[in-house]
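Two records follow; treat each independently.
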Amino acid sequence: MSLEKILVHVCCAPDGAYVLRLLKENFEPVAFFYNPNIYPPEEYDLRFQEMVRVASWLKVPLIEEKPDFDRWIQLTEPLKNEPEMGRRCDLCYALRLEKTAQKASAEGFPLFTTVMSISPWKKSQILNALGEELGRKYGINFLQADFKKKDGFSKSVALSHELGLYRQDYCGCLYSYQERQKRKAKESEPTGKKS
């Protein structure tokens, strides 16, 4: 008996490794890398190459959809001052999930999902609601999940250490990158104390 195929949106190798391995128990996953939010281009390339490694390790097909970074900026710039986990993030989820739903529908997949719910910084309720809505729009089923449950996030961290995967220290977008740079600059400032 063959397993049901599922198109799985992946944003990075650490999240992808754990979730894809988990999904392989009951499905035939195909990884879909569409992330126009990732900045700068070197970071995008690094995350994609790490995902290539994971897909090869798991023997899972990997599809890359080239990012439209300019469109992402145009759509998210009005929300650039939103805090992390705010409305800008919701819009970013929607953009990536819609592209996944479109691809799944066009390629004849019966089902799609995303690995993003494994992150403690991602809102699974929002992701699942968007996935359901987009599934209806494109006539395809969405697999609802909260992959961070049952210690999913800590298991993904352990697996990524075991595999020697690059683990990023910001979500990936331009705005979180800028925040990270400010934070790093602040951390490296001298304290002004004399010894």
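The next record belongs to a different protein.
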Amino acid sequence: GLRYTDEETVDVVQMVLAGKVNKRLVHHLHLHGGHAIGICGLDDGMIKAKKVEDKDIGFVGDIIDVDTTLVEGILDQHYIPVISTVGGGENGEVYNINADIAAAKIAAALGAEKLLLMTDVRGLLRDKDDENTLIHSVNVSEVPQLKSQGVIKGGMIPKIETCVNAIKNGVKSCHIIDGRIEHALLYEIFTTEGIGTMIFE
């Protein structure tokens, strides 16, 4: 979700996300044979943002533009870009950006086929306490009804809305999967049913 971030905290967010967490992920990818480069939304003005307007939550931003030049250059060199989601304002402000929202905006700007959101739940469940009620696929047209039924609620609301917005902006499908499961990405992409929830149009 969107969490209050004051001026002091946004500096910490920048140091932790763009520094420690980002470089740790890059290092782990390297240890497993990947070639990665860590960047953040401030690099080359990649993520341009403005203060969230409809609520006072400090230095939390809405993305107004994504410049994919840097990311495309990294991809052209066959590296994996690991992007920390802080964005820059027009007057030098630094904003904390929701990671799911940033991923969707970047995916749409790149014209990506798929967006995969890794979380700590199996996907969208009809009964949040029963993993056997996993819904494997959802058409965007079904989302309003699932919300009214209380199936989409709590922390799943922003994830589903992020997926819907990504699809409306050109991403072909979005997948919510459990990152705790070993090889989750491979199972979701290369098996017929997958292991999470796919959102499509």
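Discussion point: Helices lie at 7-31, 69-76, 99-110, 143-148, 156-168, 184-190. How would you locate this feature using only the token line?
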